[in-house]
């Protein structure tokens, strides 16, 4: 990115009161703890700020990366020659739209959202407790676990595109499927979501949340940096099962490893590099295809 573009984006950030950092390591903002420096990182605090940044990057052909909690991405060690627009702590307002509907900005973490629902005696989000992402990322991926997913509770979402156009998408328009949504292809960035829940006993809601968290801790390698499940579930089976059957439990490339605790997870076990993790993901896909005939689709977005 040249100095003109850098200064223009900083001007937009300052105009809207957004914090920003230059030459910021992406390893500080991804759950894999991997990634080189970006030219500028802007901490988005409003739809207007996001809209203007997107519009500028589009018009001037500046590379951009929209990040939430960085829980589903693998970023190159060579850095990102563009602008990172972070929807995080400055973009996480949450409130009740009515007695059963939560209105929440995209930067809110799923953990915070679940606690808010619990505190208001609202059930239906328990499955999301422990998923390490933001609301925006969860809508983008139609995140799910334990027989629940975002499509079960979402009613609509607000999003903005590179032309600065803001619109509301209905549940049908979001085209939510298994780990997919319209936002993966239409160029819109989710800014807000509305979730319809049901009234429930706070004690029972908390009991269910605690149960799911206990299951996560028992079965998933939460003690190591990872991006969660590395591969989508193939029809009729499970990625972790195929990886284990292919003899890949504990398979290692450099500092990256197929978790011995849960073969569906790839972990940064010992200061793994971008290349270590990317190579391991590709090796797993190749070996599983050779041994089982199944093609594993990577769930992690690779940013180079």
Features:
single chain, about 300 residues, alpha+beta, Uridine Diphospho-n-acetylenolpyruvylglucosamine Reductase, domain 2, Uridine Diphospho-n-acetylenolpyruvylglucosamine Reductase, domain 3, Uridine Diphospho-n-acetylenolpyruvylglucosamine Reductase, domain 1, five-stranded antiparallel β-sheet, four-stranded mixed β-sheet, about 30% helix, about 25% strand
Helix/strand layout:
Elements: H1 3-15, E1 19-25, E2 37-43, H2 47-59, E3 64-67, E4 73-75, E5 80-86, E6 94-98, E7 101-105, H3 110-119, E8 122-123, H4 135-141, E9 144-145, E10 148-149, E11 154-160, E12 166-170, E13 189-196, E14 198-199, H5 202-219, E15 226-229, H6 239-245, E16 252-253, E17 256-258, E18 265-268, H7 274-292, E19 301-303
Parallel strand pairs: 2-5, 3-5, 4-19
Antiparallel strand pairs: 1-2, 6-7, 7-13, 8-14, 9-10, 11-12, 11-13, 15-18, 16-17, 17-18
Helix pairs in contact: 1-2
